[in-house]
Design goal:
This is Hydrolase. It is a single chain. This protein is of the alpha/beta class. The chain has a single domain, classed as Rossmann fold. Strands 1-2-4-3-5-6-7-8 form an 8-stranded mixed beta sheet, with helices on both faces. Strand 7, helix 10 and strand 8 form a beta-alpha-beta unit. Helix 2 crosses helix 3 and helix 5 crosses helix 8. The mean pLDDT is 93.
């Protein structure tokens, strides 16, 4: 059973897609990256929904979620918003899959809401970025700053951005171009992005990351130009219970570029963790 709907959570309209698998014991919650949406998981979801209950969320202000200028777009608040949605759906335990910026929100959930999130799967996760500079934050208070944001994104261009995030440029087609462009055809998103620049705290510190106890699988593209492999290696070192897999001939957009491999690695990781848990329980 599949459905997509919007629900008001913490004062904002939250869009999510729910792929219910009544035979599955595990729920996977998917969080996309910056300037993206659930669209980026469209090749991965059909594979995952065979084995899991899957929920893909459009993080505000992206995709089909609300774009209010009075919502707080900090990672901590976005993490709490995701957990609130899960509670409202009666889901008490889930595994969190985060791509890029979504990985940073996933780690916030693993740190601050560990009762709910059992395991983390981080796909080219953002890591160790500082807060926006003070001049940038102050600029966000200038009237019409959102027009500068819009101009900057239009100038860099969707096609150019996609060429930066995928290894094999031949996979960039019209569906992909339109899917990543469509959220930016309305002005509201740019006003909300201005607020996101203002509210975004820095990524979790090394000390905070070391407090995460949940098992984590890190999947990286060897040729990731956005979040280089060295970030994956540092996260692997700082996350107590983690393993890192590097995919060859792959860029930053691993859910698009290597959905079958990502699906296989997630299955392998969850099975291995369940076996280890069962063994640990059996030995007590």
């Amino acid at each position: 059973m599949e459905y997509a709907r919007n629900k008001t959570i913490r004062g904002i309209d939250l869009y999510y897609e729910h792929y219910q698998n009544f035979d599955a014991k595990e729920t996977l919650v998917l969080l996309h990256g910056f300037l993206s949406s659930s669209f980026s998981f469209r090749h991965l979801i059909p594979l995952l929904k065979e084995d899991y209950n899957v929920i893909s969320i459009d993080l505000p202000p992206f995709g089909k979620s609300g774009k209010l200028s009075n919502f707080r777009y900090s990672y901590k608040n976005l993490a709490a918003t995701v957990v609130e949605l899960m509670k409202s759906l009666g889901i008490r335990e889930f595994q969190i899959v985060g791509h890029s910026m979504g990985g940073q929100i996933a780690m916030n959930i693993l740190l601050h809401h560990s009762d709910y999130a059992k395991r983390g799967i981080l796909l080219c996760s953002s890591g160790y970025l500082k807060k926006a500079s003070l001049p940038m934050v102050l600029s966000s208070y200038i009237p019409f700053f959102h027009r500068y944001v819009k101009f900057h994104l239009a100038r860099s261009g969707v096609k150019q951005n996609l060429q930066n995030v995928v290894y094999d440029h031949s996979m960039i087609n019209d569906e992909m171009l339109y899917g990543y462009l469509s959220p930016f055809l309305e002005d509201d998103i740019f006003k909300a992005l201005t607020m996101m620049i203002r509210h975004r705290e820095g990524d979790l510190s090394t000390e905070e990351i070391r407090k995460i106890n949940a098992p984590c699988l890190l999947i990286w593209g060897e040729h990731d130009k956005v979040v280089p492999v060295r970030i994956g290696r540092k996260l692997n070192k700082d996350l107590k219970h983690s393993e890192l897999v590097i995919l060859k001939e792959t860029g930053h957009l691993v859910p698009e570029e290597r959905p079958e491999d990502v699906h296989h690695l997630i299955n392998q990781f969850i099975q291995a963790e369940k076996t280890a848990e069962a063994t640990a329980h059996g030995s007590h």
